[in-house]
Structures are given as C-alpha cells and as structure tokens.
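**Archive record**
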Amino acid sequence: MFNAPRTRPQGSFAFNSQTSSSTPNLTSSYDPLAFNDQDPWSTAPSPSYTPPTYASTPAPAPPPPAATSGSGGPSSNGNSGTGGIIDEDRLSSIYQLALEAVDPYGRGEGGISLTAAGRVLRSSGLGSSEIERIINIVSSNKPRITRLEFHLALLLVGLSQEGEEPSIDRAISRKHNPPVPSLNLDSITSTGPSSSLSTSAPINADPAPSSHVSDHTSSPSTNSSHYVPPTFPPPTRTSPPPPPPAPARRLSADPWSTTVPTSPPIPTLAPLPSHSHSYPSSLVAAPSTGLKGGLLAIDKWWEKEMRIRVTLVPEREGRFLNKWTVYGVEVVRPGEETGGVHRRYSEFTWLWETLLKRYPFRCIVGLPPKRLGADGSFLEQRRRGLSRFLNFVVNHPTLKADHLVQVFLHEPNLEAWRKSTPISLEEESKGKGLSEREEMEVPGDLEDKLAIARRLLTPKVHSWSNIVTIFERHSRRLEALGADSSRFAMALSSLVEASSETWKGGIPVNAVSGWGGEERERDELGEGVREGLKRVGRSFEELAVGADQRSQQLLLVTLEALKSERDLYLAFRDLFLRHDRLSLDPVSKLQKKIELAQQKVLAVQATKKPNFEAEVDKIAGQIEAAQAEVAGWMARRGVIRSIMWSELAFLLHPRENTMVTLAFQQFAREEATYSQEVELVWRRLEEGLETMPLEG
C-alpha cells in the first residue's frame, strides 16, 4: 500500500475525497512537488539532485563501482553492490568521526557536499593534485557525494598516505584490511579554513519544523533554528542591528475585528514534566483542553516556542533481515544537555494516530510516508518531515498540553509503557458543552469564514508547493556553484604545484660566457604569476566554503521554514476533510423520532384504552432519552464550532502570517550579508592581483 502511486494534484483539491484518519500516508503533508516532481509513494528510487548541464559542459564520466555495506548487498544510499569496494564493518573509527564532522545529524544519509568533503581531504596533508585525483575518482561533476563515496575517498587518502596508488583496484584489494587515514579533524571542527564568508548566523542541521526562523536577537544556544555545526567556520563579523521589536499583540476573540478587550487573560504555559518519567493518571481520562486563546494568548509567542531535535541514529536496531531505522528525539533547552530517547517510525505513527482520534478537529501536520527499501536520501527527507511534525505538535496550543506528547518525548521504553498503561481515545468534543460566554466568543458568521478559508486553501497549497520546489532548486544551484568553485581551486593548486619548476630556472646564469659559478637564473615572472594563481585559488576556496555554507543554511533552515508553511495549509486541508466526515450527527433522525413519538402519545391518549397511562409513560421516557441525546449532540456541535474557530483564528491566522514574515526577514538579511562578503572576497582579490607581473 505504501508504494502505490498517487496522482499529482491538478488545479484544485476535492474536499470530498475519502481520507482515512488511521493511515498517515493518506493525509501526509508531503506533496509530489516537494520531491522534484517525483511521488514519494511511487516505486521509483528516491530523487537525487543532478546539476544542470550546458553546452560547454562535458558529459559526466560514469561513476566508479559502487561501494557496499558490510553485508555486500545494496547500501543504504541506494547504490547497488557491483564491486564490493568497502566493508563498512571493518572501517576504523576515524571514518565515522570524519562523517560526523561534516554531517553530525544526518550521518551522511542525505549525502555530503563536495566542498565539505574536500575540506576533510585537505586535512590529510596530501598535495592538491593528489586530492583532486581522489575527488575525481569518487565524484564526477556532482555537487554531493554519498556516504559510501565519502568513505571511499577516505580509504583512497589512506592508501596514498601509505605510499600506494589511490585507485579502485587497490581499494578493492584492501577491502578486508582498509587503511587508517591520518586526518586533522580539529582544523575542521574548531577553526575551519580562513574565510570571510562565514554564515551570517549559525545554521541548524535540524531546523524547527514549525517554519520558525528565530528572531535574530536570540542567542544561538537558545534557538534550535540556529546552532553552530562543527563543519562550518565561525562568523567573522557582527550581525546587523536588530529592528525595533514589534508591539505586543493583545488577545482578541476575532483577529479580523477592530475591537480589543481591555484586559485580556494571559495564561501561563504549563512547565515541562520532570525527568523522573512519572506521568499523571489523567492519561486514561479525556484529552486536554489546552491553552485558551491559542497563540494570541502568549506575548511574542514565536520567541517562546519549544524546540525538538530529530536525528538519525547510526546503528539500526533489530536482528538480521528484520532491522529498522531509529530516530533520536531530544528536547533542546538553552545551556542544558537533556539527553534524548530513541523512536521508531511506527512510534511516530502511533502518536499521530492517537492525537487524531483524541483531537479530530484540531490542525495536525501529517507524517512523511513510509517506503520499503528506502535509500539514504529518502531517510533524510523523512527525518526532516518527522522533525517538522514533532515541532508543530509541541508548539500547538492544545496538543502540547496532552500528556501523551510528554510521554513520547521522555519515556525511555515507549513500547513497554504502551503495553502497561491504558490510554483513552475519547474525542475531545465528547461529553462537553460551552458556557454562555464561550458561545458568544464564536462569531455568528463562522461558517462563512470557514468557507472562505477553505476556498483559499487550493491556490495557497499550489503556490507554496511551487515556492518550495523553486527555492530548493535555487539552493541546489548555489551548492553546485560551491562544488565547482572548490574544483576550480583544486585545479589551480595542482597547476601551481606543476609549475614549481621551470626550464628557465635550470640554466646557469653564465653558462654561455664560461666564467663565474653555477648560480641559477631566478624566474621572477613565473614566481609572480604562481603567487597570483595562489591568491586566485585561495579566493575561490573562500567562495566555495561560503557558497556551501549558504546553500546548507538555505536548505536546512529557510527551505524547511517554507515547507512548514506548506505543511500548515495541507494540514488545514486535511482538517476540513475530517470535519466533513466526522462532524455528522443523528440530530435530524432523533428529532423526527421525537416528533413521531409525540404524535403516538396523542393517539394513545385519544383512545383511552385500559392502562394507557403506562404506555404513555413508556413513550414519554423514550422521548426524554432522545431529547437528552439531542442535547448532547447539539452541545457537541457547539464545541466543534468553537474548536474550528480556535484553530482558524488563534492558530492558522497568526502562524501563517508571523512565520512567513520571520522567514523572509531573516532570508533577506542573510542574503544581503552574504552578498557583501562575496563582494569583499573579489575586492581583496582585485587588490592582490594588482602586483601580478606581466613581464619579467
């Protein structure tokens, strides 16, 4: 069922489609447009980025035989085992440490940028021509390499350091005894290359899925949208001054209304549970009512959002063929190591399904799909989707107060807890009613507002899907530019090495006249040109590192923010589908039943048969029971209307506007800074080449 192809949405969404609330793949927030026009439910391999080719670009050479995992079968990156080059079980720890230095959270499942891989290889101390040769072996005109290609490059480095030829044949011969490369990883994780093109703000390899791009006044340690990854150099400049803070918004029952209450209630957030893993017995009771007033009840709510980091655990769990991918889930707290828990995809599914049953009329972001035989690229995409889902849940005004969410975040053995603890699946609106004040807070034209919101979902989903696709293409082009700049810098360095000796330097100065010593002629012109080429190479390396950093920031922060905005509208589309299906009730049938019973009472009273009073009492009891049932269903209608109003006014409206504002504010600010730093590199190079000689 998971591999059945889906049709791409065309123009509009049919809100009467039959969506199952028990299958995350049917209401997933993923859209085919987000996967480069490939459907994640199809049986085709996961998409990987291929840079555009131009008329002046030679066709790429065929890749080397694929490296394989220890089993000799297909690797987790989707490479089929054709040469059996690498047995990952035999690799020393330096291979894993190098991988974590360039990709601490994805563990290489989504690939490693060529620029970052080049920095690791240069830390080996090999010459530029040797590094360029190794890069060309493992990658041909690609901006990214797979995890196994990265390991192959390190293996070739080890061969070269041992004095052997770095080739595929030698790598195969050392499969059972791979060399241990000598790398200076401190130069990568601590200082990195000298470059003015540091990222304008530390980026996050696990961005907040709720499309939150933090206010730039926040400290990196307090914001999971920004953390300092060990692969990238630290900033060498100060951030631009922050704009004046926006005035705090006051709570209003209707965000479209011009009336503002004089003293709005500002409830406080419930504290997180302790780490004793002791949870209240109310788990078996009804769902939580959450925070009244939604996001608007919290002053500057976007600065107070909780952060969850989802990572891929390197080692899969299970036995033999029955193994599964495990995700690390960690609550990010400022200045505190909170540890974390391991969760399977099926446990994410359990949380998603349980929340849907308890809160069917709340907006809940869908889960990424499941695929049999998923490769590394798909797993990385799924990790990011799970991160967006979980961060949305923990920042939802109502869902975050559900104790099941806290259990999911903190319980070490969730499987055992589920077996020993009864869980209520009672619907949030069941058995509840609204007070007179709560009924008055729901606008009378709510149905019209919901109809407008529903009508606007189709163009918004379509537009945001296109925005995500185009922005990812833009970010990938910048990554490819960084890879080409790195290749260009390596080629220049190889040229400088090859030009270290010249024919002119080998001729004695006075060889013709026959007098004097063996003093050799100095090639001042060649030395000056080589020095200029070194400057050009260093500048291109700075540009490569800067482009790689910037592309990763765009992909891991800005793109995830845009995807979260898209996910929000897809979640509301699914909410309307559930509302159409689950809000139906038997009130009309019950009222008709009551009317018939009342007519029957009149008929029985008219006949005045013996003991007719007993029959009238019996029918009257049935009428009272039906009327009580009608009252319960009518109360449920009121609660559902209140919930839908809350989701529309206090969740969708503030989130869809505030999040996109923050995202594009930071994007524009960082793009301006990045452009200035690129210009600075070219200005310095221009000044440095002024002394490059034209003649000797």
Summary: Residues 536 and 686 are 9 Å apart (CA to CA). The first helix runs from residue 93 to 102. The chain has a mean pLDDT of 74. The longest strand covers residues 326-332.
